[in-house]
Amino acid sequence: MNRGYNEAIIFALHRLHDESADGVLILASDLPLVTAGEIDQLVRPAVSGAVRVAVSRDGTGTNGLFLNPSDIIAPAFGEGSAQRHCRLAEAAGVNAETVHLNGLAFDVDTPADLREFFALQATTPVGDLSVGVVPARHNLKLSR
What we know:
This protein is an alpha+beta fold and 144 residues long. Helices cover 36% and strands 19% of the residues. The chain is built from six helices and five strands. It has helices spanning 5-15, 36-43, 81-91, 102-105, 111-123, 136-140, and strands at 21-27, 50-55, 62-68, 96-99, 141-143. A hairpin with a 6-residue loop joins β2 and β3.
């Protein structure tokens, strides 16, 4: 039974709960321009009690969410999620840090986004797109 994106993430977080982890990164899969450097900035070392929100281009969505510890807030993706994640962090007694980076912000949600991505590819030398590849095991959980 598919109960939705947020429920699936919460299920995974409970299954992968590990006290030794430095935090958990939840990253959208529709980010063709994200770089390893941007991911590093999003998950850079943080004291316990950190919430970082990688904001979409329109300023409303969440394309990446770093939580330390993993259960500091419940993921609440969907329309208006960037502000919602910040409010949840505030309610948990921590400040959410918003992260605005081009590759993390550029998601492909609509046909127009896909056309824009193809146009970027056509006008940008291949090596300059800097698409970063992160092994799947690092997309969800970071270990010390």
